[in-house]
Amino acid sequence: MDGVTHAEVLSDELAVPLRRALEADYEHAIAMPGAFYLSEDLLAIERAQLFGREWICVGRADEIPEPGDFMTYDILGEPVVAIRGEDGAIRALSNVCRHRAMPILEGKGRARRMVCPYHAWTYDAQGQLIGAPHLQHRTDFDKRACRLPEFRCEVWQGFVFVTLDPDTPPLAPRLAPLDAIIRNYHFEAMKTLYVTWETWSTNWKSLIENFMEGYHLSPLHKETLHPVNPTRLCRHFPEGDAHFGYFVGFSPEMERVRRGHPDLSEDELDTCVMFSVPPNLVVGGASDYSSFLCIEPVTTNSCRVRLGLFFHGDDWPEDAVEKATRLFHDTMDEDKLVLDQLARGLGSAHYTPGPLAPAAYEGCVHDLHRYVARRLLGVLEGLREDA
Fold it and tell me: Which residues form the signal peptide (predicted)?
């Protein structure tokens, strides 16, 4: 190691396998080394280059249906509030008061006026300051010139995306190939009936890999998902620059009520479409109801996760929603147990990455590696050049 810099070691550990992933087809894809998940330096790069520049999903538009409805989300520690205005548009605003930096709103709710809880500075739903108590005498302060910074926001298929980077290309055009696949499900018309927050003891990429591969559905989820969506019914579909995914059919042995949008074909009614819009959104889509996770990295081995379920139609009885929620959490709990232990293995000096299963089963794992490679390989290779 004499004469070798830390930057060169990081580049060698990660740039080489990422270059291999970018060049390998699915038949020759290989898992990533432990450093891909456990490197603090890589996480810092990911936070800056991915979560700081890409489109981040903060929730669903139907969660804030009326003027004044809002939901909050932190992106890289930056407090953001998505709020629907009187004009019906959803805006993403800084959730930090321009007075002394107090976060203004928490969680979800309705506020036709955004009132800072510290000193009652008040903003409208467009972020304009409309009230600053006891500052009328300050001739050097014009509240009409004071407003909350606004971030770019897009609503796609009912999901609300925000980016902190003013120069990031628009999202919707990049997802046109995925639109063609999921169009008939009409996810934008579904109703979100369950949302919660959790903290998972795993790397954010490990969680995406787990959600987006069908290889483990039958062996790990013997009593939960195998009877519903067994591994044998998985089919991979081509990745895009900003998405990847796979299909998994419903077991023909399972009794179910086939319901969904009238545009759906018979095959689509019997098929789930699993997709990711990296770096933070994964969706398990189906005709009747669907699940989503919004993932926020905290450390190399922990992330905050916003989990939700959204349903087709308005006639879902409470017990049916509870049954769906129970299956969702039973499945997620099984995944948690595995992912909680995964970091121990990834940190082993004796771990050697193995071959990935065929594309139908682990193709999306390879897709995630390729996505990271496309975004970060230049940065990692540049570390060696700059050393």
Answer: none
Place of tokens 């018309």: 189
Helix H or strand E encompassing 307: strand 302-311
Task: Provide the domain limits for residue 155.
Answer: 56-163
**pTM for the full predicted model:** 0.95
Order of strands, edge to edge, in the sheet holding 108-110? 56-60, 159-163, 150-156, 90-94, 78-84, 69-75, 108-110
Beta bridge partners of 108: 71
pLDDT at 4: 44
Q: What gap in Å lies between CA 185 and CA 188, rounded to an integer?
A: 9
Q: Is residue 13 assigned to a domain?
A: no
Helix boundaries (H) for 249-317? 266-269
177's enclosing H/E stretch is: helix 176-182
When divided into structural domains, the chain yields a total of 2
Residues in the chain: 387
Ranges of H-type helices in 258-317:
266-269
User: Is cis: bond before 238, omega within 30 of 0?
Assistant: no
Q: Which residues pair with 91 in a beta bridge?
A: 83
Q: 204-235 pLDDT, tens per residue? A: 999 999 999 999 999 999 999 999 999 999 99
**Could you tell me the two tokens for 315?**
């006639």
Radius of gyration of the chain (CA): 22
How far apart, in Å, are the Cα atoms of 259 and each of 118, 264, 321?
49, 10, 14
Give the rounded distance of the alpha carbon of 189 from its chain centre.
Answer: 20
359-371 pLDDT, tens digit per residue, is 999 999 999 999 9
CB 386, CB 53: distance < 8 Å: no
Q: How far apart are the first and last CA of the chain?
A: 14
Considering the domain architecture, whether residues 176 and 316 belong to the same structural domain is answered as: yes
Burial letters for 147-160: b for 16+ Cβ neighbours within 10 Å, e otherwise? bbeebbbbbbbbbb
pLDDT over 70, % of the chain: 97
| CATH value at residue 148 | 2.102.10.10
* Pair (334, 353) in one structural domain: yes
